[in-house]
Design goal:
This protein is an alpha/beta fold. It has seven helices and 15 strands. It has one domain: 4-Layer Sandwich (Nitrilase/N-carbamoyl-D-aminoacid amidohydrolase), CATH 3.60.110.10.
Length: about 270
């Protein structure tokens, strides 16, 4: 299979977990009705993106309420589903974790955010995920009828070695639930996704929460899809919505034949 129809669900995230789960259900039903084969929810879609909230909203996987909810939704709509991410409780540790489901509702992958968002930007954002979260220690790919797909979470995209490894391991598409903010988003959002797509000659897609100016952490929005040539195929603005995009995965091979940089790498130099 070479054509893949994806729905990126840029949903509003509220303080009430039940409202968030209900909104995810509404969007996934809409995505399925519009012909999506794979759907993606945003980073931390079931709770505010706030380090003071993560432990209170955390759940075990797969026994937690959110995971069970996503199992039923993937199965009901016959979707491959990248369940954004949620705060995962494992023993006493917390992780920022994304779970992937097949159309039968089975868990086929789990990615724990490997690079934690610890930043202090002058006159901008200050955030320290490591004060409450632990990092994952694995690169994550999963098998689908369209081939291997890679999975990252937000800050992971800033580390090109991770995406390069996934591309070398066969991923033609990397999916990134992400919540950039109003400092990093305008500066780096599109640039990073176009760069990773161009460097590796793969598709890159991202699902963000919708923007809430009243939130403690204001998301940039702008969920998008980028092709292996580095072109932005489609992008939302900051408002809630579903971005439907159809990927022709044969473009990966076409671009790699036109610009055979993978074959031209100088392994004797680097």
């Amino acid at each position: 299979m070479t054509m893949l129809k994806i729905a990126l669900c840029q949903m509003p995230v509220k303080a009430n977990k039940q409202e968030n789960l209900k909104q995810a259900a509404i969007m996934l039903q809409d995505a399925a009705a519009r012909g999506a084969q794979l759907a993606v929810l945003p980073e931390m879609f079931n709770c505010p993106y706030d380090i003071h909230c993560f432990r209170d909203y955390a759940e075990k996987i797969p026994s937690g309420e959110t995971t069970k909810h996503l199992v039923s939704l993937a199965r009901a709509h016959g979707l491959f589903l990248v369940g954004g991410s949620i705060p995962e409780l494992s023993g006493e540790l917390l992780y920022n974790t994304s779970v992937v489901f097949n159309p039968q509702g089975e868990i086929i992958a789990r990615h724990r955010k490997a690079h934690l968002f610890d930043v202090r930007v002058k006159n901008g954002i200050e955030f320290t995920e490591s004060s409450v979260l632990s990092p994952g220690n694995a690169a994550t790919l999963f098998e689908t009828p369209w081939g291997k797909i890679g999975l990252e979470i937000c800050y992971d995209i800033r580390f090109p070695e991770l995406t390069r490894r996934m591309a070398k391991d066969g991923a033609r598409l990397v999916i990134v639930p992400a919540a950039f903010n109003m400092t990093t988003g305008p500066a780096h959002w599109e640039l990073l996704f176009r760069s990773r797509a161009l460097d590796n000659q793969i598709f890159m897609i991202a699902a963000s929460p919708a923007r809430d100016p009243q939130a403690s952490y204001v998301a940039y929005g702008h969920s998008l899809a980028v092709n292996p040539w580095g072109d932005v195929l489609a992008q939302l603005d900051e408002r809630p919505g579903i971005l439907m995009v159809e990927l022709d995965l044969t473009q990966v091979e076409e671009v790699r034949e036109a610009l055979p940089i993978r074959k031209q790498r100088r392994k004797d130099l680097y």
